[in-house]
Amino acid sequence: MRELLTRIGLALAGRAGARLAAAVGVVVGRDTLLRLVKALPDPAATAVTVLGIDDFAFRRGPHYGTILIDMTTHRPVEVFDGRDGDSLAGWLAQHPEVEIICRDRAGGYGEGARQGAPHAVQVADRFHLWQNLGQAVEKTVNAHRARLAPPAPPPAEDTPPEVVRPLPEKKIVTRLREHYTAVQKLAAQGMSKAAIGRKLGCTRPQCASSSTPAAWRT
User: Fold this and answer.
1) Looking at the DSSP assignment, which residues form a beta bridge with residue 66?
2) d(CA 130, CA 132)
3) Which of 69, 72, 148, 182 is least buried, going by the fewest C-beta atoms within 10 A?
4) Where are the alpha helices (DSSP H) in 30-158?
5) pLDDT score at 215
């Protein structure tokens, strides 16, 4: 049970972990889950050959710190207060195995990396590469905005609509139209509705309905 709750705490932390534990029938508080996680021993330290460096703000305030990441395992290896180069240089001096340092453009990190690991190769991280590229493109576009071609004028309001090909007439509509024409022709000759019905093979109501266009205007 302890191992199960520890795994839940590692995956979901306190509040969410307590809700999941209750769903499987285990009543446990969020503080208990957090204590189980804190009681775990630290993972064994491994040699860091590719180091990532970045700063972060404590509670979104003006106070900043620095976090070091093992870029191979994507796990944090150290956190210290401030973002100056002295603390970084001291940590790198104790870890000569670092070969590549991936950092942002901060000058303090650059100086600390040169002092603590002069043999290491410094590279820019992916986020700042994309950010610098976007800034360079925006600056270039703004500098040559006058040379850009003007937008095409909108179409005139009196532009005739495109010709739409009409749908083919249904067979039932064609038959009704032909039937109506025949009834009207015979009626013009003076034939009665009964005679028209016998000649065309339709009943009297059908002949009467065919005498008006409403029968085929559908």
Assistant:
1) 55, 80
2) 5
3) 148
4) 30-38, 85-93, 107-116, 126-143
5) 43
Helices and strands, counts by H and E, the chain? 9, 5
Indicate whether this model's pTM tops 0.90.
no
Number of residues that this document lists for the chain: 218
Distance of alpha carbon 96 from alpha carbon 131, whole angstroms: 31
Label residue 59 exposed, middle or buried (CB < 10 Å: 0-12, 13-18, 19+). Answer: exposed
The rounded distance, in Å, linking the Cα atoms of 211 and 142 is 74
Question: Is the Cβ–Cβ distance between 66 and 82 less than 8 Å?
Answer: yes
Q: Dihedrals φ, ψ of 149, to 5°?
A: -65, 140
User: DSSP for 126-150?
Assistant: HHHHHHHHHHHHHHHHHHTGGGSPP
Q: Are 85 and 109 in contact (CB under 8 A)?
A: yes
For the chain, residues with pLDDT lower than 50 are 213-218
Strand ranges for 3-137 from DSSP E: 50-57, 64-70, 75-81, 100-103, 121-124
